[in-house]
Amino acid sequence: MKHGIAIAAFAAAVCCGCANYSWKPAVPQDMRTVSVPTFRNESGVTGLGSAITTQTLREFQREGTYAIRPVGESAIEVQGIVRESDSRSVAYARKTGERNREHRLHATAIVSFIDKKSGRVLVDNRKYTATASFLAGDDILTGERDAAGRLAEDFARQIVDDALSLNVECDLRQAAGAAQETAPAPQTP
C-alpha cells in the first residue's frame, strides 16, 4: 500500500512539473526556413568558409526544425565570415627533436542572423571559435585540411544551436514596443 502511494505521488509530481513543457520548437512556424550563403573566408585555411557553410546546412537538415531554402526565399538568412585561423605546434617527436608531431588549428568566425521578412538583424556579428588538433608528419597541409573539417562541424553545431534559441516572436514584440515608445505622443488641440 505504501509503495503504491509513493508511486502515485511521484507520478503526480512528474506530471505537474512537466505540465508546461512542450516538444514544439520555440521558433514560430512562419520563421522556420533558413538559407546559408557561402561564408566569406578571410582565414589562411583554404576552403574553410565553404566547409563551414556545408556543415551548417547539414546540421540544419539533421536537426529538422528549419527547412533549407535558397538565398532570397527563406525567412532567416545566416551570414558569416571566417576572420582568422592559427595553426600551432603543440608537441614534438622526441626522437627527431625538430619535427612537429601534434598541431592545433584554431579559427574564429563572425556570424549574423537576418530576418529576411522584416530586414531586421536578429543577431549581429556574434563571434564563434573552434579548435581542433591534428597529427602531422611531413604533410601538414593534409592534417590541417582534416582538422578544418572538424572545425566546420564544431562551428555548425554552435550556429544551429543559436538559431534554435532565437525567440523571434519575443524579438519582434520588443522591437514593436520600442517603436511605440519612441513615437511622439499625439497632441490635443
Task: Give a description of the structure.
The chain is flat. It contains four helices and six strands; from the N terminus they run H-E-E-H-E-E-E-E-H-H. It has 189 residues and is α/β, with parallel strands linked by helices. Helix content is 38%, strand content 29%. Helix 2 crosses helix 3.
Main features:
189 residues; alpha/beta; 29% strand; 4 helices; flat
Summarize the structure.
The protein is of the alpha/beta class. Helices cover 38% and strands 29% of the residues.
Beta percentage is 25-35%
Fourth CATH level, the homologous superfamily: Lipoprotein like domain
- Helix-strand pattern: HEEHEEEEHH
CATH hierarchy class name: Alpha Beta
**Radius of gyration, in angstroms, nearest whole number:** 24 Å
List how many beta strands DSSP finds: 6
Tell me the CATH architecture: 2-Layer Sandwich
CATH topology: Double Stranded RNA Binding Domain
Give a short account of the largest sheet.
6 strands, mixed
- Contiguous helical run count: 4
How many angstroms separate the termini? 77 Å
Helical amount among residues, as a percent range?
A: 25-40%
